[in-house]
Structures are given as C-alpha cells and as structure tokens.
Amino acid sequence: MDDNNGCILALAGGVGGAKLVAGLAGALENQPDAPSLKVVVNTGDDFEHLGLHIAPDLDSVTYALADLNDIERGWGMRGETWQFMQALERLGGETWFSLGDQDLATHVERTRLLNGGETLSQATAHLTRALDIGVDVAPMSDTPVRTIVHTDVGALAFQHYFVREQCRPAVSHFEFVGAEAASPSPLLDETLSRTDLRAVIICPSNPFISIDPMLAMPGVKARLASARAPILAVSPIIGADAVKGPAAKMLSELGYEVSAAGIYAHYDGLLDGFVVDRVDERLVTQMAPAPLRAVKTLMKSAADRTRLAQTVLDWCDELRC
Ligand code: GDP
Ligand code: CA
Question: What would the CATH number be for the domain defined by 2-320?
C-alpha cells in the first residue's frame, strides 16, 4: 500500500470492527495502486485495571491484523493460556476481567510505554510495528474518553456494564466522559484533512458504544459530513439480532427499530451507503431512496472478510465517480 494513492479511513470498535478491518487490509494488499488504510479505533472502553492501561478495542483490531486473534472464542489471542488469572485467583485478587498470559504482555508493554511518556498513539504504533502490521492503526484520541452507561440500576463504568453485569441492565443513555475536551489523535486529524481521502468506512461495530465515542469529539462529525469522500457503513445487525454483543438489546431499549434500519436511523443522515445483510434484502426497497445494498455480511472466514471488504471498496469507488 502506497500513501501516494490516497487513503481510506476505517472507523472500528473491537471484534466486529476488527473483522472488516482485517478484510480491508487483505483486499487492499492484493490490489495494484491500492490506497493506504488508516484504522482509527474506539478508546471509550479503555480502563485502568491492576495498574495497567487496557485498551480492548485497539487490541482486538491489532490481534486481528496480526492474525493472532482467536476466532473460535471471538476475542483475545489464539493459543492463549490463563496461568496469570489462576495465580491471581489463588491470591484473592480481582478476577472479573479475564487477562490471558499473552494478552497481559500487551498491557504491560503498553503501560510501560505510556509511563515512559509516549502518547497512546505512539505506544500503539510501537506495538503494531512490533507485530509487523503494515497499516496505520491509532486510537481515536490520545486523551482519555470514558464511556459511562446509564441504566435502570444507575450509571456504570463501561467494563462494569459489559463484563461484570454482562449487559443485563436496561440502557437509557450513554455518556462519553472527556469527549468534549478530547481532540482527535494525529492519525484521525490528519486523515480527515487529507484531500486524497477516498472513503470513510464505518465498520460493523456497535454504533452506540464503539462509533459514537468518536463522533462525540468536537468537530469529528462535522468534518466527516463535509468531507468529499463517501461514508459507507456495514450493519452490525443481521435480521433482528446482533452477531454478538448488546447492539440489538440497546436498539430496543433506546426505542429504535431492532433491525439494520435502526442502525441506519441512528447514523442520522451521515451515510452515503449502507451495507446490510442479504437476509435484510427487503430493506433495500422498503427504505429507498436510502442508499442500501444487501450482500452477505456474516464474516466467518478470511475469505468472507475479504469479499465483504472488496464489495465495500468497490461501492466506494462507484460513489466517487
Ligand atoms: P466490540 O467492541 O468487541 O463489541 O466490537 P465492535 O463494536 O467492533 O463490534 C460489535 C458488533 O459487531 C456487534 O454488534 C456484532 O453484531 C457485530 N459483528 C460481529 N461479527 C460480525 C459479522 O461477521 N458481520 C456483521 N455484519 N457484524 C458483525
Ligand atoms: Ca469494545
């Protein structure tokens, strides 16, 4: 990938985002004169735990791009072992958040780099370079933004809602603490300013907790909306369900239609193209003139990921003409 052929910006959360990002990297790798891929990742889920800076979404994207991710389990690293967790449990330590032995090394190294004065962008570049990842990956911001989930049992820090409470409380709204004062990371800022930005791809991530934290930073939504590049999203909802996670439950609790149509409505005019699953083909006519296309969006294999990515890239090219 050559930076002289323009660039594509992908906005991603964790696991759903990581799958399409890996597909985009794969599709672009095989293309002559391919634009470069810039991947900007949600950090609203980041937290301090056991003295370490944990960045779950950055790690999901990084492990997928390095082909180290565990596809069966759906998160974390392949071939992971859990001796650290077992030893911690024996000591009566905090074990509600699972940290695999290999994964732990990422958090220890990231925390060391941050304590040494690097920004989260620099630490991320360090880690992705060490894993031979050929595309630029960066956090959405170098300043902390922390997602708070407001629920029927009160306000919960994101990981308490997600991991400890397993998304059971009903959601009323989200708060992205620090977003108003946060500025986009250098990669996000530079990419949004590039005149050769060819497309923005919003991955099939949870819009409420993976994409909205980015859009909540001052200027980001307006800069996206005024960019000449088309903005395409892939629906994380197939039929009436999320492939994984609380996106469908959130749509329902927040009063949206529980389908890809609810996701499109939430993006509120931002999208130039919206890719839904072929099981939702009826939406293409029902929602016309909204720009929808239906293809297979379930990514079970590397071939699925690359095929979906190529479809999205082809549509971006059409929209730019
Ligand atoms: P998280 O931060 O790890 O929860 O990951 P994301 O926010 O990036 O992605 C979560 C969303 O990905 C969920 O709403 C899933 O429904 C969606 N998702 C996961 N795998 C797939 C897939 O293969 N295809 C599609 N279309 N969506 C997916
Ligand atoms: Ca996440």
Answer: 3.40.50.10680
Q: How far is the CA of 14 from the centre of ligand 2 (A)?
A: 5
Q: Ligand 1, atom 21: nearest CA belongs to which residue? A: 16
Q: How far is the CA of 241 from the centre of ligand 2 (A)?
A: 18
**Burial call 185-223: b when 16+ CB within 10 Å, e when fewer:** bebbbebbeeeebbbbbbbbbbbbbbbbbbbbbeebeeb
Q: Which two tokens stand for residue 123?
A: 């630490």
Sheet holding 146-151: strands in order across?
154-157, 146-151, 171-177
Q: Which residues' Cβ are closer than 6 Å to ligand 1?
A: 12-17, 19, 57, 60, 204-206, 210, 234-236, 238, 242-245, 247, 297-299
C-alpha of residue 242 to centroid of ligand 2, in Å: 14
Domain spans in the chain, listed from the N-terminal domain onward: 2-320
Write the pLDDT tens digit of every residue in 48-84. 999 999 999 999 999 999 999 998 898 999 999 999 9
pTM of the model: 0.97
